[in-house]
Model the fold of this input.
Amino acid sequence: MPARSDTPTKYVGPEPGKLDADALRRTVPDDPIKLPKGLLACEGCGIAHDGPAILAIPRSRTYVNAKGEAVEKPIAPLEYTRCPDCTRLNDVAGGDERTRNSLYALAVVQVPAPEDPTPLVQWMGTIGGLVSWLNPGEPSAEHCNPYPWAHVSLGHRRKIKEAYLLAMRSRIDIKAAPLDLPPPWGGACLFCGIGTVPMAPLEVARRGGREYAAQMIWQGVTAQAKAFGAKGREILDGFVCPTCAEVGNREVSVSRACAKAFEEHAQRNGIRVPTDLFNLYENGHPVVVPGWASLGRITPNAEPWQHVTLVIEEDEPVPEYVA
Ligand SMILES: [Zn+2]
Ligand SMILES: [Zn+2]
Done:
């Protein structure tokens, strides 16, 4: 299609001075301000409003009486209101908490509430549960937000956008490919060396995004380098994949878990290993199967335990172990 003569051929930014500083400011977090007298904070977006209290959190104070006993005395409850914008979202949600939380999350990243939010809830409900101003564990009596959602951190804003993006993508392709989740740090499973664990996009969203999903699926492990078959007493800390973690949780030490994880991998995949290798363990010999962590590498293995199986294949026939 030929470009119309009045179609601009390149992007022209807003005229200087026309940038809406206030709108920009609302896309990033800010510190709370003192709650003005006579107003209540909105339980959702956190701004001060003169609406009625819609919920109250009971409070008490502990003091020591004349007999020296600690006594708990109830004090005035903490009250919250709901501003007109959040009330409208609550109405769209029909009062359902998970739906309301999902709409709150969308409001944080300035996405208007869809007519029917139901399909979004399974994607946005988890991260949505973390965005409202009201945090029952840490209620605030004296503060409110300077503008709606100012308390929501950049990290949470990123996770909301991620969940929304995954939800949108799933509408285009219902069988969306699984997402590859690397460990939170370290680059690969410290035992078998795989670099990512696949997870269905919906499962990722249900766990609150990639970062939380990775923290849940990868299991942290800390041990001296020698437990992974490397030299030295230096402490290595990182993560093991779910397959290796499952073995590890049955074993008493990291070095044993590493050996056992390899043994089970070898059995599952018909890999020949020196027959005595694992019997030695049962007889109390400190056999160490080198974990990926012992290689001091950054790149993960293409296949689990590749750093061990390649050596075994190259060395055929497998030499007998001589005690
Ligand atoms: Zn509000
Ligand atoms: Zn592993």
About this structure: Residues 189, 191-192, 194, 240-241, 243-244, 304 surround zinc ion (ligand 2) (CB under 6 Å). Residues 1-5 have pLDDT under 50 and may be disordered. Residues 154-172 form the longest helix (19 residues).
